[in-house]
Amino acid sequence: xxxxxxFVLSAIFLSSGLSYGKKAPDxxxxxxxxxxxxxxxxxxxxxxxxxxxxxxHSCEKELPEVSKLSKKYKGKVRFxxxxxxxxxxLQIEEKKREWGFDLPVVxxxxxxxxxxNIFGTPITVIIDEDLNIVDKIIGSGKTEELKKILDRILQE
Length: 156
Description:
alpha/beta
């Protein structure tokens, strides 16, 4: 059963258009104050983007864990929580307080969601300082895996 799950997840990833070593798609996010943040703006420092939704129970567990992890990498790695499915800033701020995370939140519009092939949440995308996609983590509870990936990137 485990092999079937791994096969299916691998097939989804391979068909997603996102491959290791390929450049991150040239899209943008919107900050909660309305400013556009282009992928190109992220060059120079590794970046972790956790795609989430306000009604995602797994995200409620994942975001506080990634938020804690972000403190370990402060100044070395950028972290963003990219919300999909809403532009309601009050609702987003409420979830941040309720769930207890302090990652900077950006809004991922349809084009951005599609470019990263986000088909569920949470999905974490790791981009290196040259804007290459290093990894994509599907699901929650994988902060140890994320930590290993970030440690490897920072040692290279």
